[in-house]
Structure formats: C-alpha cells, structure tokens
Amino acid sequence: MSTSFVYHALGLQGYEYVHQKFEGGSVIFRVRPKWRLLRCPACKSKQVTRRGLYFRKLRSLPIGRKPIWLLIEVPRVWCSDCKCLRRISLDIAEPRRSYTRAFARHVLELTKLMTLKDVAMFLGIGWDCVKDILKRNLARRFARPALRQVRYLSIDEISVRKGHRYLTLVMDLDSGAVLFVGDGKGAKALEPFWAMLRRSRARVQAVATDMSAAYIGAVLENLPGIPLVFDHFHVVKLMNEALTQVRRGLHHELEDVLGKKVLKGSRWILLKNPENLSAEHDEAAMLQEALKLNEPLSTAYYMKEDLRQFWNQPDKETARAVIDSWIERAQSSGIGHLVRMGNTIAGCKFGILNWYDHPISSGRMEGTNNKIKVLKRMAYGYRDMDFFKLRILAIHEAKYSLTG
Ligand SMILES: [Zn+2]
Predict the structure, then answer these.
(1) For residue 378, what are the domain limits?
(2) pLDDT tens-digit readout, 293-304
(3) Which end of the chain is more exposed for a tag (fewer CB within 10 A), N or C?
(4) Are the CB atoms for 43 and 79 separated by under 8 Å?
(5) Distance 53 CA to ligand 1 centre (A)
(6) How far is the CA of 42 from the centre of ligand 1 (A)?
(7) Does residue 271 belong to any structural domain of this protein?
(8) pTM (predicted TM-score)
(9) Is the distance from CB of 31 to CB of 71 less than 8 angstroms?
(10) How far is the centre of ligand 1, averaged over its atoms, from the C-alpha of 86 (Å)?
C-alpha cells in the first residue's frame, strides 16, 4: 500500500499513506494531509506550525463488499499571521459527519436503485445514516425551490394519517414538481408559500384548486386578479361525493334486503365513467338495476354524467349556457344533496368558466398523490416529518415502483 494507492483507489488527493490495519472484516487506512499543502483554514497563510493533532475516523468507499475506513491524523496548527491556534478542516468530509463526501455520493447512487433499508444492509451501515445522507442531499436541492418561472399552480391537500394530519401541497403544473409542502390544511398552511412566491417575483397566470372557501379566499387575497380555475378533477370529485350521499341516504330508507344488496354492489359502478364499465362483470346491467330502484339516485347519476360536459363545449359562452341549465335542473330537483351541489356550482361558475381561458388540470397532482401513497406506506413517513416533506418535494424524480 502506498500514497499513490490511496490517491488512485480511494480518490484521496493531498493525503499521504501512513499504515493499514485489518479489524473485524474491515480495512482501516491511516492517512494524513500532506504537510506541504497545509494552510491556515482562516487566512490561507502558509506560515503555520504544527501543534499536536487529533484523529477523525471516516467511512470511505468500500472495496467490493469490504468496508473501508480512513483514520485521519488531523493536525492543529499555529498560524503566525492570525496569531491563533487552528484546526485544519478536511475537504473530503463535511464537518461532524462520520463518512466522506465520496461515500455519501455512493449511498445516494444506491438509493436510486434500492430501498433505504436495502442500502443500509448492503453497506453494513445503520438505516439512520442512509436517511441522514439522503435528507441532507434533498434539503440542499429542494428546500428552496426556484419559483421565478412558475406560471400555473395547483393547490391541494393530502391526509397523512387518516383524519389525523394533513399536508397542503402546491404544485407547478408545467414541471409537475411539488413546490411547497405546508403543515395542516386551509389558508394558514399556505402562508409561508405566499411569502416565498412574493420574493421570487413570479408571474403566475392561473391557479387550480378545489372549491373550498379557504383556498378561494387565500388565492384571491394573495394573488389578486389571478384567475382561479376549478378543473374537471375537483368538481367531479365533489359531485361523486354528493352522489355517494344520495346512495347512502337511499340505503337507509330501503326496507328490502335484496334492494340493499343491489345498492351496495353499485357503489363503485355509480362513480365510474360509463365508458369504463366492465363488460366482463356485466356492470352496465348492474348499474341499470340500481338506477331502477330509485328515482333520486338515477337523477343524481345522470346529473353527474351531464356535469362532465362542462369541459367539453366548443367555447366559453356555450359552456356558460350548459352550466346555467345544469344549475337550474339541480336546484329544482328536490333532492337535497343535488340542490346543494347546484348552489355550489352556481357560486363557483366563474372558476369553471375560467378553464376556457386557462385549460389547466390538477390531474397531474393525482399521479403525484399516488406516489405519495406509496411513500406513506413506508414506515418512516411519520417518524421524521421533515424528511417526509423533503421526499414529497423530490417526488417528481422518484421511481416508486422500486425505491423506498
Ligand atoms: Zn491565519
């Protein structure tokens, strides 16, 4: 072994080899910084004299499966220019870390291919160490996203643990990247984001949100004059909820067991788009049977189908007429949930029509939500919320079929 070995094999530049030791299946190389390269860490002066040393043990790149450690003699120096005793800082590792930068890069490469647990096992290090390396890397790259070029935003919330905790996400609809993850839901969760956005001087063109009063208020207040768009995705979701309520109310009223069974089986079929009904399971026939049971359910179902036409019109004016007619039918239907939906649509008509000027959709957010669900299933989701948020910010580059 030699200085040129540590240089070529371990990428250690500016260090000389002292000796090696084999201990418990790993190799320990003792090295020290080359004396002639020593400078004062503060003023960079060469006028330094050695005043003792301390040791730093760093995990380095493995050779095959064999763990490699560096035991580094780190000198303390007296700088005659600063008139001060100083510790030499090592450029091959970050302060207070027990591994070299090269080792950290190696771990990051591996996290792209396997779960954190796999990486920890493969390298024989703790899971926390792998997490620490990934977390620091994500924080460096994603904690402060560039907002300057952002044009179209989508705002939505996700539940982290059923009914327990929410996170509010802001997505860039052009790039698909999550720009911000706020604690909780509603207007308050977004406050730090507005501050970031103002500093960036981005020129936002439009924002897609659901129809909750909190988000509408927050956007109107913080992005005055910027159109709000209620896209297909959110409106249909709300209508599906109304339809489910109608079905549930009916289920309580129904006396006969057979009818209840038919209704129960129709739960998902009612929410499907008709073109997606499965022929194999004869879902179309099941749907007809459920709709025959009860008129309000059938009305609500066809109103749901009609509602999808809001976004299929040749222009904004035709769409306005279609929506107005829908609102009128809903409000005069005599079905409580449908009347309420009619009122909601009436109040949000402006945002649905804005879609004709800015045809954006939160559909992209749905794909992201699916990836987050995979992320949530991994145990660390709740243990370190900051890490979880960082992983969401990096989620557009994650391949979750593989990685954990
Ligand atoms: Zn100095």
Answers:
(1) 152-230+361-397
(2) 677 788 888 888
(3) N
(4) yes
(5) 17
(6) 5
(7) yes
(8) 0.78
(9) yes
(10) 8
Cα distance between residue 73 and residue 93, in whole Å = 14
Q: What is the pLDDT of residue 7?
A: 83
- Distance of alpha carbon 21 from alpha carbon 55, whole angstroms: 15
* Structural domain contains residue 143: no
Same domain assignment for residues 319 and 256 = yes
Residue 369 CA, ligand 1 centroid: distance in Å? 53
**8-state DSSP, 284:** H
| 226 & 374 share domain | yes
- Work out how many domains the chain is built from and give that number: 3
Please write the tens of the pLDDT for every residue from 49-97.
989 999 999 999 998 889 999 999 999 999 999 999 998 888 899 989 9
Q: Ligand 1 mean position to 74 CA, how many Å?
A: 17
Low-confidence ranges of the chain (pLDDT < 70): 1, 162-163, 254-259, 261, 263-265, 267, 291-293, 378-382, 398-404
50 CA from centroid of ligand 1 (Å):
13
Q: How far, in Å, from the CA of 15 to the mean position of ligand 1?
A: 21
